[in-house]
Design goal:
The protein is 31% helix and 28% strand. It is α+β, with helices and mostly antiparallel strands and 173 residues long. Strands 2-3-4-7-6 form a five-stranded mixed barrel. The protein has a two-stranded antiparallel ribbon with strand order 5-9.
């Protein structure tokens, strides 16, 4: 029988080993090391922000790696190609069951979930970039797919797809 002090030492050792091993309680690990879960999209707020039913809770979710032009901020004008980006996100995701893939940081300073969203086996965040609906936005420590996503944005720019062909250079950032 272990004494209370010994039990505490064993508990600390087990928790440390679990932490180093990357255990995440209640969240599955995919083969690529990203944490993932499924969710249902219940509302599209704008091109890069969703409301999802995740584990029985309504959560606000911000797509990782992308920034679509503004459409809902009352203090900023609607951005060029913002309505098109929001409409595209709505068409593709509204009511869909999606897979959430988390990077290193799961929530932002506003409490929103941060995730890559997969639908029909493809990362939707990439679709926004390749279609010219968004520009790349990498905020550390999340940036696992940054290089691939940069290539997608550069391809859309070169082809003048979406906002890269429709908006004046000063509006593109």
């Amino acid at each position: 029988m272990l004494r209370p002090r010994q039990r505490s030492a064993v508990l600390v050792a087990v928790l440390a080993a679990a932490s180093l091993g990357g255990w995440r309680l209640g969240v599955a690990r995919s083969g690529n090391g990203l944490r993932s879960d499924s969710a249902r999209v219940i509302a599209v707020v704008d091109g890069d922000t969703l409301d999802v039913d995740w584990g029985g809770r309504r959560e606000r979710l911000r797509l990782l790696g992308v920034d679509t032009p503004e459409t809902v901020d009352l203090h900023r004008p609607v951005g060029c190609y913002g309505p098109e980006a929001s409409a595209f996100t709505h068409r593709r995701l509204q009511g869909q069951t999606v897979r959430l893939r988390f990077d290193r940081q799961r929530r932002d300073r506003y409490g929103r979930l941060l995730a890559y969203v997969e639908v029909d086996g493809r990362r939707f965040n990439d679709e926004l970039l390749t279609g010219g609906y968004a520009r790349l936005l990498v905020i550390p420590p999340n940036g696992l797919h940054g290089r691939a996503m940069l290539d997608e944005e550069l391809e859309a720019r070169a082809a003048k797809r979406g906002l890269w062909g429709a908006c004046a250079q000063t509006e593109k950032g």
